Structure formats: C-alpha cells, structure tokens
C-alpha cells in the first residue's frame, strides 16, 4: 500500500522539555488517521512539524517519499484546518475558497470551475455568493475544509476542528467529515482529545501519551484490546480494580483485589504471579442479574447508588457489598430493568475474557 506520510524518529524539545519523543509512524494513502491524546501530550506540536510551522529537533518527515526538511509550509503538499477556521468574514463563500487559487495565479475561468466543483463535493452547491455570517456552524466547517481541498493537498491536517461546535452539531459533523473523507479520498490527519470523534471517524488511531505513541491501531482493536493501562483508561469508559495476581494460567489471571474479591480475567503478557496489577472491565461487559446456570462468570453483589439516565447510554452507579469502589454498569436498551431503584441490591456478573489486567504502575 502506498504511503502519503512517513514520520521517522521525530523529536521536539523546548529547552529541557521533550514535547515529542522519537515518534515514528506511516499513514497509507487515503487513510483517515487520528492522533488522540489529552491536552499537553504533544499532538499539536507533532501536527505543526508535519505542516512545517515548527522545526523538529531531530528526525525525518516525508510526504509521498519526499523529504520535507527545509521545505517551508507554503511549499509543502499539505493544508491545515484550524479549530477556529480562520475564514475571511468580508469575503463570500466562493471568495474564501478561491483565495489560495488566486495566490497561485490560476486563471479566473479555472478558479470558477474548481470552486463550483469543490462546493458540490462538500454538499454546498450554490452557496458561492453567500456571506460567511449567513452560514451555520457546520456549513462554515465545510467551507474551511473546501478551501483547503480545492488546493488538492496530498494530506489535509485538522487540528481539533470540531472543538468550537455545540454538542449536537459536533455529533452530526463527525458523520459528515467521515463521509466527506470517503468521498474525496484525500488523506486526513486529525488531531483530537475527544475519543468519540477518533473512534467514529478514523481508519487508524495513534494514542499519544507524554510525547510518545502508546498504541497505533484500528478503533476496534484500541477499544477491545488495549496494549497499555493508559490506552485502557483513555479510550472508552472502564471500571478499575487494583490487586495482586495470585495465579496465571493459559492467558487468564486470577486477581485478588484490595477489597478481597477474586476475579479471573485476561492478562497482559507482561503480568506474572505475585505482581501488583490493575484490572479493567467496561460498563457494557457487566451483566445484571445473570442467569444462575451460566458457568464461569465472575459474580459479586452490589448496591445501586443512583441511575444515570442518558437514553440508550443509561447506566447504574453501584458499589460492591462491603466495599466503596464506585462502578458503572450499562443498562440494556430494552425495558427489562426499568424496575431498578437506588438502594436496590443486585448481582453482577462478567465473563473473564471481557476484562484485562496490566502490571500496576505503582
């Protein structure tokens, strides 16, 4: 598969602070590649190095096999969409999109043709004469992307472009952006701290932590098979117990938690008997009142503290009997458990293959 972007051992330091620490990755042509991580992890610094706005301390960046060292931003085959879009309010939609083409010195006839074509591709056919302040937030987003795509970049860089939108529009734009990327086929490099954005839109995601990539994988693998405790905690919701590994056998560990419970779960390869370990189990893996005939489940009793109603994403907040650990348990979307109330006592079960444990950082 052809590669649009190749980054090798890239590093950026500011005095003694290491912002990006020897990161390497490849992005295949036509891929929607997201870099996901908390604020301050180095993801925007990495994006700015790809764009040419920040000089790497060391390492190599190649776009379609060409070394980008000493190539200025305006000469790189990339374009950057900022969070605040930076549209020109005094120009029409067509004027905004045509700006880069005019700077290139293209003919008026060619500019008109390209502007009309890209407006149609982003679902804004006929919007050329409109003023920017006549557009909705989602339409402005598409104009900003169209202004970049009309220049036919090899790679489109997007730095948290949905961050300024309200929640409902952000949910809508996640789907729109993925559809648009599929339609135009341009390689997208997307920066975000929002795991939902990354999971919904991306072909591959790099989870960044303290200047390094913890794991680069498909959304499904990141969610179902995290390789580090940070990925397990950061991607999706997880319940966590700490404890000690008392037995290991055939990829399954038996853990005694700090509240004296024994659970069987999948183990990360580096965990051994006697290690301190952290156990992660997702809310949707918890079974409420499991059938007594189901064998092999981990079972324990809980008390319901409260019901967190959120439509199809509703959950219970519970505490295990004789313990103070707060746990989230997903409520099935059917109405089977509508009778549950605070202070009810329930049995919870989960399959050992649904959890995973890692050696504790402590």
How is this structure best described in words?
34% of the residues are buried. 23% of the residues lie in helices and 35% in strands. It has helices at residues 43-51, 93-104, 108-121, 137-149, 167-184, 195-201, 219-224, 229-234, and strands at 3-14, 17-28, 32-36, 58-63, 66-67, 78-81, 155-159, 187-192, 204-209, 212-217, 239-249, 252-257, 262-267, 276-281, 287-288, 298-308, 315-320, 327-330, 345-350, 355-359. It is α+β, with helices and mostly antiparallel strands. The longest helix has 18 residues, at 167-184. It has eight helices and 20 strands. The protein has two domains: 3-232, Rossmann fold (3-Layer(aba) Sandwich); 237-359, Beta Barrel (OB fold (Dihydrolipoamide Acetyltransferase, E2P)).
Number of helices: 8
Please mark out the parts with pLDDT under 50 across 5 or more consecutive residues, or reply none: none
Query: In total, how many domains does the architecture comprise?
Result: 2
Gyration radius over CA:
25 Å
- Please give the order of strands in the largest beta sheet: 6-7-8-3-9-10
**CATH topology assignment of the largest domain:** Rossmann fold
- How does the overall form come out from the CA principal axes? globular
Which architecture name of the largest domain does CATH use?
A: 3-Layer(aba) Sandwich
Strand content: 35-45%
Sketch the topology as an H/E string, one letter per element.
Answer: EEEHEEEHHHEHEHEEHHEEEEEEEEEE
Amino-to-carboxy terminus distance: 42 Å
Number of strands: 20
Structural class: alpha+beta
Major β-sheet annotation:
6 strands, mixed
The CATH class of the largest domain is Alpha Beta
Determine the CATH superfamily of the largest domain. P-loop containing nucleotide triphosphate hydrolases
